[in-house]
Design goal:
The chain has 262 residues and is α/β, with parallel strands linked by helices. The chain has one domain: Stationary-phase Survival Protein Sure Homolog, Chain: A. The protein has seven helices and 13 strands. Strands 3-4-2-1-5-6-7-13-8 form a nine-stranded mixed beta sheet, sandwiched between helices. A hairpin with a 2-residue loop joins strand 3 and strand 4.
Length: 262
C-alpha cells in the first residue's frame, strides 16, 4: 500500500486538512505532519537556531513547532517509519499563483520532498477572503488532488519536479476545466503600513492587495481568472539554461593563454 505524507502551511487545525485526508485515504496509508500554527509565506525556511518540538495528534498525525519545510524534513528523517511514495501539501487557503510560488510555504513543503526525489503536489484553493473558511468548497480541491495523486503514484513525475495546483472556490460540478499551465506573474499593491504602538514605537505591516495577473497565455493566473483549475509543473533546478548558454560565449568566460575553459 502506498505511503502518503500530507503537510501544509496553514497548520494542523486548518480547514483544508480534513478534506484532503479524506480524499487521499482510499489511495494509501496517510500520514500528517503539519505546523502547530499557521506558517504562511515562510517559503523554504528551515529552523536552524532554535529547537523544534513535536506533538503527536493521532496514530499517524503530528504537529511540529516549525515551518512547512521543517515538517517534511522531520517526517522524512524522524517521524515516519519509511519513505513516503508521495507528498501532498495543502489544501492552502488562498491561491499560490505566479510570484506567490516563491514565497509559499505550501509549495516549499512539496519542494522539500522533491529535493530528495519524492514526487510531490502542492494544492491551493483560490478564495475570496471575505468568505469564512468554513464556507469554502474544499472538496473541489481535495477531489482534484486525489485524482492527480493517483496519477502520480501510477506514472511518477520527472526527477526534482512537483505539481503546483490551484483550484477555484466553486462546487465540483461548477469547475470548468483542469489546465496544464506555466507559472505566470502576479502583481500586488506595494505597501508598507506604518503604525505606532501604545508606547510610541513604530511598527510596520508589509504587503498590499492583489492587483492583477499579467496576461500571459496558458499561465496559471489566466486559467484561474477563467474559472479553470491550473496544474503547473515546478522544478527544483532554477538554472536559466538559455542565459547560461549565452554567458559561456562572453569573453570573460573564455580561456586565456594556456588556461582551460571554465
Amino acid at each position: 500500500m502506498p505511503r502518503i505524507l500530507i503537510s501544509n502551511d496553514d497548520g494542523v487545525h486548518a480547514y483544508g486538512l480534513p478534506p484532503l485526508i479524506e480524499a487521499l485515504t482510499p489511495l494509501g496509508e496517510v500520514w500528517v505532519v503539519a505546523p502547530e500554527r499557521e506558517q504562511s509565506a515562510q517559503s523554504h525556511a528551515l529552523t536552524m537556531h532554535k529547537p523544534l518540538r513535536v506533538r503527536r495528534r493521532g496514530e499517524r498525525s503530528f504537529g511540529v513547532t516549525g515551518t512547512p519545510a521543517d515538517c517534511v524534513y522531520m517526517a522524512l528523517n524522524k517521524l515516519l517509519p519509511g519513505r513516503p511514495d508521495i507528498v501532498v501539501s495543502g489544501i492552502n487557503r488562498g491561491g499560490n499563483i505566479g510570484n506567490d510560488i516563491l514565497y509559499s510555504g505550501t509549495v516549499a513543503a512539496a519542494m522539500e520532498a522533491c529535493l530528495v526525489g519524492i514526487p510531490a503536489i502542492a494544492v491551493s484553493l483560490h478564495v475570496e477572503w471575505d468568505v469564512h473558511a468554513s464556507k469554502h468548497h474544499w472538496g473541489t480541491a481535495a477531489e482534484l488532488a486525489a485524482r492527480l495523486a493517483a496519477s502520480v503514484l501510477r506514472d511518477g513525475l520527472a526527477p526534482r519536479t512537483l505539481l503546483n495546483v490551484n483550484v477555484p472556490d466553486v462546487p465540483p460540478e461548477a469547475l470548468k476545466r483542469v489546465c496544464a499551465t506555466s507559472m505566470g506573474v502576479r502583481r500586488y499593491e506595494t505597501k508598507v503600513d506604518e503604525r505606532v504602538d501604545p508606547r510610541g514605537q513604530r511598527y510596520y505591516w508589509l504587503g498590499g492587495a492583489h492587483e492583477r495577473f499579467e496576461p500571459i497565455p496558458e499561465s496559471d493566473g489566466e486559467a484561474i481568472e477563467r474559472g479553470d483549475a491550473s496544474v503547473t509543473p515546478i522544478q527544483a533546478d532554477l538554472t536559466s539554461w538559455a542565459t547560461l548558454s549565452r554567458l559561456r560565449q562572453l569573453d570573460i568566460f573564455q580561456a586565456r593563454g594556456g588556461d582551460e575553459p571554465r
